[in-house]
Amino acid sequence: MSSLRGSGAAEGAGSTRVARPGDLSAAELEIWRELRAKSQAPQNPFMEPEFTLAVGRVRSSARVAVVYEGGEPAAFFPYMRGRLGQGRAIGSGVSDCQGIVARPQLALSASELLRSCGLSSWEFDNLEDGQSLFVAGAAAEYASFVIDVGAGYAAYETALRERSPKFFRTTTAKERRLGRQAGEVRFVFDERDPAALARLMEWKSAQYRRTGRRDRFAQEWISTLVHQLAHTRAPGCSGVLSVLYAGDAPVAAHFGLRSRTVLACWFPAYDPEYAKYSPGLVLHLRMAQAAADEGIGMLDLGRGAAEYKEALKTGEIPVYEGAATRPGTGALLHWIGREPSRRAHGFVRERPRLAEFAQRSLKRAARLRGAGR
């Protein structure tokens, strides 16, 4: 299904074509890739057409607005359409980089784009830095933690030793002890065994429940999306399953997406039976080394504070949460539905003791739910 909105026909200047992702032509997809390749932003795989195409196969609400300028596609805006014209970022809930892919200096406003899509609002929680079309609607800014291995893994390791010598010594010592006590440690950067992916998803689901969080893999569309992306092989977006083994046993794993230069870290988990060896930290160091060997310059660990991110990071890049709206009832409904809870979450995050109490409460609730089964 596709529709034409705006000031002209599909090939007219300033017009917009709205389509399901799977209805985009091969030529349009190639222009999308070319526009993204010319961008000054890091080549995050979530911004490539392959991710949107995969979401389109599992979410009927997925759409792409193709904006024309001078008779040629000048921008691609992927989104999911909700009730009453309220939109969300494509793959909302699991997408770690969001926004529009467009020519520089495209003559377009957020209000015009939303109108052409029939949207009253568009909500985002990981808006890419530099998305000037939408940043005015941001309600909060967060840090996405990154590991820069552009100068090679040896340079990263040297910097890590200097910045956190105790952390590095402890982690490498635990890796050696894991090898002595559980079997030879080996690492596979791009594991193709479907059983390893299934094991990772089991670990991650258990972790979500253990920490009182919503189990993402209990949602069929997310589980199906991950399996689809595990088989995606494109220069700008490929699924990568990395696994750390001790002997024949997998002890930690990670599934993410990679482009030529960025590894977007997505779903890491480990076997709790091996927790004393910190296999997740060992896994990430091995991933950093393998990524550098592959020519990848950056690992994006995503937003959200965590001890392992603080220990491994070399820097941070900003991402934004909020919504672009245009005047009307839909925008008011969005504000009523979202802003109070967002402000409450912000209030908690800005107070470490309260945030710690909230985290303990989540874990306690999870234990009670488990005991009641």
UniProtKB/TrEMBL annotation:
Xref: Gene3D superfamilies: 3.40.630.30
Domain called BioF2-like acetyltransferase: residue spans: 168-310
Pfam families: Acetyltransf_6
Superkingdom as given in the UniProt entry: Bacteria
Protein name in UniProt: Cellulose biosynthesis protein CelD
Provenance organism: Streptomyces xanthochromogenes
